[in-house]
Structures are given as C-alpha cells and as structure tokens.
Amino acid sequence: QESEFSPAVVIGTGYGAAVTALRLGAAGIPTVMLEMGQLWNTPAADGKIFPSMLSPDKRAMWFKKRTEAPLASFLWLDLANRNIDPYAGVLDRVHFGDMSVYVGRGVGGGSLVNGAMAVVPKRSYFEQILPAVDADEMYGTYFPRANAGLGVNHIDPGWFESCDSYQFARVSRKHAHNAGLATTFVPSVYDFDYMRREEAKEVPRSALASEVIYGNNHGKRSLDKSYLAAALGTGNVTIRTLHEVRDIIRQQDGTWVLTVRQSDPDGNVLAVKQLGAKYLFLGAGSLGSTELLVRARDTGKLPELSDEVGQGWGTNGNVMLGRANYLWDTTGALESGMPALGIDAWNDPRYPVFAEIAPVPAGVETWASLYLAITRNPERGYFTYDAASDSARLQWEISQGQPSIDAAKNLFDKINAANGTIYRYDLFGDTRAFENRFTYHPLGGLVLGRATDLYGRVKGYRNLYVTDGSLIPGSTGVNPFVTITALAERNIERILAEDLR
Ligand code: FDA
Questions:
Q1: In degrees rounded to 5, what are phi and psi of residue 135?
Q2: Mean per-residue pLDDT over the chain, rounded
C-alpha cells in the first residue's frame, strides 16, 4: 500500500497548531492538519451545534457514559450531570489517579470549550518561567500579534456596570474591595458587543444561555473562526478530522511516517493509515504531544529522545472554590458564561494568586460566588509510558496540589473575614471547600529549552517540532492560551526562516 506524503504535517488543531498551520500555509508550504475530534459546524436535530451546560447530551463529552462537569454538585445534589451515549463529543476529562485534566476535542481544540479569557502574563513572571526567551520581543511583537490573530476584545466598562449579566462579578468585586484587594478586567475572545445584544434580546443567546465548557453556539471567536479560517484561506492547508495519530516513525532518509487511526463519531475505527511528512509539528496539547513522544521514546521508535520528554508538567496552580453570599447579596439568575473580571493578588510575596471570578450559569439565583484561582505552585508532575494501555500516565499526587490550596485559602480567608462570609462546602461532590483534583490548564511535558531547543525543535531529531502548551514549564500565572499562541508565533517565525527556506 502506497502511503501518502505531505511536506508538512501538524498534529492537532489547538492554539499552537493553528498558528503553525497558518504561518506554514502563508509561506506556501502544503500542510495537512490531523485532528482526533470533529469539525463542529453542523447543527443537530435541535437546531444547535453544541448543547448547553444545563441540558448536556452526547455532544458534550468525549466518549463518556455520564457528563463530568467541574461543579459536581449543588447543595450536595448531582444536578449538573446527565447520562449520555458515548460519542466524539467536544469536552474530555482525562483521568490520571489523583489528577484529571479537561481538554477540548475538535477543530479548534481548547478554544471550543474554554472561557475565552485572553490574558497576557505579567512580564516579571514570564521572565521567571522562561528566562531564555527574549521578553522584549515577546511583549513588543508576539503578544500583540497573538492578540490580533485571536481577535481579542475588551468589555465596555459602562455596560459592565449596568448590565444584569455581570451582577455576579460586581458582587465578587465588592467583596474583594472590602478586603482591600484589587480587581481587573479580563480581555476576551468572546464578542462583548454580541453579548450586549444577547442581553438586549436582539440576537440568539449563547454566553447568556448557560453555554460554556460544552461549546458556544454564538459569540465566541474560537480558532475555527480566527487562525484556522485564515489557515484554510491560504489554500495550502487541509484539516482531516476524526484522525488520531498513534505512532511516529522516522525513515532512513529522515522523513516521518505517522500511523493514523480514522474513526466515525461513534468510535468505530474506519481505517488505519500511514501518512508521510518531511516536517512534523506536534500541536496535540500538553497531554497529546507529550504522550506521542513518551510512547515513541519508550517503545524504541525514537530512541534518541531525551529524558526530559515527559518532565516538567504542572496545573498552572489551578484550584476552584465557592463562597456563600448573604441572602440579600444576590448575583441574579442571569450570569454570563464568560468571565470578565479577576482578582489580581499576584504581587503577594508569599501567596501570589490571580483569581478569575467565575460564573455559576445555573439560570437561577445560587447565592454563590465561584472562583478559579491560578496560583504559583512549584510542584511538577511527569509522564511515564504504560505498555499495557499503550498510553502515557501522569504521575501527580494529591499532596502536590496543597500549595495551590494554601495560596487560595490565604486570599479567600481575607475576603471572608472582611465580609463575614464563609466558603461553600456543597459544590464538589463531598464537603471540601477547595477543589484541586482537576485542572483546565495543563502545561508542560516537553518544556522549551529542555526537551526542545529554545524554539521548540525536539532534541535528538531534525525537522520535529513542538508548538503547544507542552512547551510551557507548568505555569504562566494567568489563563494560558495567549502565552501558547504568542510563543507559537515566535517559534514558527524562526523555524520558517532557518529550517524551511
Ligand atoms: P489544545 O488542547 O487546545 O489542542 C490540542 C488538540 O489536539 C485537540 O483538539 C485534540 O483533540 C488534538 N489531539 C490530541 N491528541 C491528538 C492525536 N494523537 N491525534 C490527533 N489530534 C490530537 N485558557 C485561557 O487562556 N483562557 C480561558 O478562559 C480558558 N478556559 C478554559 C476552560 C476550559 C473548560 C478548558 C478545558 C480550558 C480552558 N483554558 C483556558 C485552557 C486552554 O483552552 C488551553 O490552555 C489551550 O487550549 C491549550 O492549547 P494547545 O495548543 O496546547 O492545545
């Protein structure tokens, strides 16, 4: 059987992959993208592409029998989750013992399911986590380029103060200010003008119809509408969906051969194909790209890969918590699914925290203020290859999450003390106040300058590159997709100039 060949192949269609494919396509290089998830552009029988958080169906999750929402319970009742048929849905929760990781599946990767917060990291912290990267270049060129390519926009402060959709955020802001803490608006790739018209009932609702984590039917500039649309527009990029890369082999002549499993959305394998490439870019995300290289090294297919492959993984210090509000201090029943405000306590010398003020888009008054705190947790996990399941397993212990809890507790104890409020103990399936058994922000595994050189070239092999969140050493101090996008812009510019001339 003759195998197909493409000059460049990009694995995945998330942030790093989308940037890379656009720049390759614009340079005239024929490029194939391989994505294990679906293209989400066709309405189902209900007229919608994605289900809402309140009535999830099989489209919600990647081959699960029951949905696995982050808020496991409300008043200890499992109200959020539903039994569903296993299907190639849009959100996956990958379980590794004491840690589970949420990731998006489909053309656009995490951009389909995420909260759209587009935050540039604090420069001083960026310089700490990636000291070998020229920060002048990043802040002068690549962060602005990423923001432009992503279509980042800012909320109108006047509308924020007067709308119903962010009453929940104004309540949390008041409580933070009572404790002497600073808050800041968060830029977004959700179109705030569309949201304003949603509230005015001029357009179909998405963020205001409890849509987030299982996809947004309107308003969000996910990658399929930004970088990937531009990539396809070059005429040199094609995307194959429901194509999962399983193995990477290097030929004698230095080219790559991928083993690719094509399935239907119900999970039936349709074909196992071989695809050749001269230049191979890994953009399958922290879990996906790291697994591919851990598997390739430990099965002997790419024995020159370094011991750094699989190391340096972190949760971005994620921890979620809720506070109970007084009965008179209502958040309102209408809460935008897209956060727009954060508590910025990153300057705290001992316990830096950037806490996004998160919605509880339940459609009813909940008397709860929810937060996703991003903390500076120095703990790192690593991946090992498990031959029995032919997969990479994350090694992370529950105790490694304690620094995140300590930092969040330090901040929110202050807020509770200043307001006479308490934590919510009913949100995470048991009586814990702090949930750190999952992360939205998996980072690392193929860290820049360790598993790769300073531009994402994998050590040990030529023409093999990493483009995604696995390059970032476990932490960015803010929501990560702008950092991933900007780093990918920087790296591909150099690789195009030096390697693909
Ligand atoms: P990403 O994970 O986006 O894409 C990888 C793609 O590769 C996926 O489409 C996957 O299906 C595919 N793939 C994996 N393995 C493959 C294989 N073997 N073969 C073929 N395809 C494969 N960040 C932020 O900055 N602001 C925010 O508001 C949020 N909010 C948020 C909410 C939720 C619910 C989640 C899950 C995540 C966020 N994030 C976020 C995080 C953000 O979405 C995340 O950091 C980025 O999507 C990571 O981008 P990458 O390019 O690394 O890969």
A1: -70, -30
A2: 97
Distances (CA, A) of 192 to 113, 152, 186, 219: 17, 10, 12, 8
| Helix/strand/coil for 266 | coil
pTM for the complete prediction?
A: 0.98
Residues 424 and 480: their CA atoms lie apart, in Å, by 27
In this predicted complex, what is the ipTM?
A: 0.99
3-state secondary structure 145-163: HHHHHHCCECCCHHHHHHC
> 89 CB under 6 A from ligand 1?
no
| Mutation test residue for ligand 1: of 90, 286, 441, 483, the one with most atoms within 8 Å of CB | 441
For the record, the structure tokens of 121 come out as 């990291």
pLDDT, one tens digit per residue, over 63-115 is 999 999 988 888 777 888 999 999 999 999 999 999 999 999 999 999 999 99
Q: In this structure, what DSSP letter does residue 138 have?
A: I
Give the whole-angstrom CA distance, residue 80 versus residue 427.
11
Give tens-digit pLDDT for 288-337.
Answer: 999 999 999 999 999 999 999 999 999 999 999 999 999 999 999 999 99
Residue 325 · residue 369 · CB < 8 Å:
yes
The answer to whether the beta carbons of residues 150 and 485 sit under 8 Å apart is yes
